[in-house]
Amino acid sequence: MSTDKKAKADRNEKRRQEEAKDRRSIAVYSVIGVAVVVAAIVLMIGSSGILQRTFAAQTIGGVKYTASDVQYFYNSVYTSYANNYAFDSGTSVKKQVYDQETGQSWHDFLMESAIETMTNQTALAAQAKSEGYELSEQARNELNTFLAQINSGWISYGYASRDDLVRASFGAHMTYDRLVELVNMEYLATDYGDAKLNAIEHTDADYEAYYQEHTDDLDSVTFSQFTFQATVPTTDEQGAPLELTDAEEAARLEEEKAAQKVLAEEVKAKLEGGQDPQTVADEYTDRMYSYSVSRQTPGANLAYSTYGEWLLDSARRAGDISLTERDSGSSYFYYVAVFEDRGRDEEPTNDVRHILVRAGSAASSEDPTQEQFDEAEQKAQALLDEWKAGEATEESFSALASANSADTSSASNGGLISNITSSSSYVETFRDWATDPARKEGDAELVKSEYGWHIMYYVSSNDPVWRQTVTAGLRSQDFEELAASASQGMTPVSGFGMRFVKA
Length: 503
Known about the structure:
Layout: H1 3-48, H2 50-54, E1 56-60, E2 63-66, H3 67-83, H4 106-130, H5 137-156, H6 162-170, H7 176-198, H8 204-213, H9 215-218, E3 220-231, H10 246-272, H11 277-284, E4 290-298, H12 308-312, E5 321-327, E6 331-343, E7 348-358, H13 370-389, H14 394-404, H15 408-411, E8 416-420, H16 428-435, E9 444-449, E10 452-464, H17 465-486, E11 493-494
Antiparallel strand pairs: 1-2, 1-11, 3-4, 3-6, 5-6, 7-8, 7-10, 9-10
Helix pairs in contact: 3-4, 4-7, 4-17, 5-6, 5-7, 8-17
């Protein structure tokens, strides 16, 4: 082969190699490009909520629930337990153990509870429809009040639209129309279940048997408790962010733990020396995370505290003192507890109706002025006079409350608030009036609170706390039986959509 021909062949071969290389490059970059586009589309679709609202996450009795639906129920269960401080809301529930024996996480427990709630409500709503059950007037009023709050509340709460309020309150991918469907099902299932439960009667023997079986949960425990918290500050004295290495942060935490433990031991020693808990609390109030003196609470509320088991030990005697510790992950706590007493809570419960005449605006963050309080008092007095000039019955008061009360949570039920005790978490003046031993049925007066003026109507004194608690327990047992019967054969089936439910 001549030199020219060889050179030409070499050039041709080189060109073919370069073309092949170009084709490979084009192929590679095409694949990359397609992958990027696909990723962008997936991201866009995911953020739009289409996936969360389309694919079945759970199917129960033939009813499809999407990830958005499951998220709604999960958030509800999560909030319920978080409000009771059952877990550290500042740490992922996937990293917190619910059951020490099985290792089950709080996330798995909450998800199980959410799906169980969905199953029960699906079954009861279906059974109610099959029997032609219709909502009671009270349930219908409460439902309408809830929906009215959604439809108008977004303005007073500063949202740009109703949909923004729905997404912020009930899940990022929830829609108003779907929320209405879920809430209607919930109200139907709950009201139907209540009607069935109200028809069940229990004897005194049933109450006593239940109490003996659940004494630790039902007994009222009286104790004083002092809490010290060790935590590493995130800012310096000037408010500037602190930048610490992991080693420095760990060392600082150990220093804080040592200092807080010293304080806890000092408090324990003073109490053991016979000092009054309130005196000790007054001395250390500026150095403690929190405290409570002669606190009274049902044993069930102690389930998640580090000193709960100690307080409920049958060996406890008045004056016993303990020091316990808890590592929450980001902080370390020391608890000093003083046992005082335990037994049945015989305090009577009380039912009242009230009409709140608000001073100022609910949307305002500023305290009402005296002028606004005076205006509210005048309006409240006029309403009370109007009621007294009429039939002056509980029924007429209920109607007046439904039409005029600024307390929307009770207005739909005629202003009724039940089972109030001296330890209930209502404003002090309201609670004190409702629990006054001198109170008689039909008493009606004005009571001032930080919110404005309350027109109070005393309904009745009821069963003591322990019996009311047993009533709730028996109803819970009855409900489990009712729900189990209704949901027989309704096994939840997980679907593709579950992967879009966020913890």
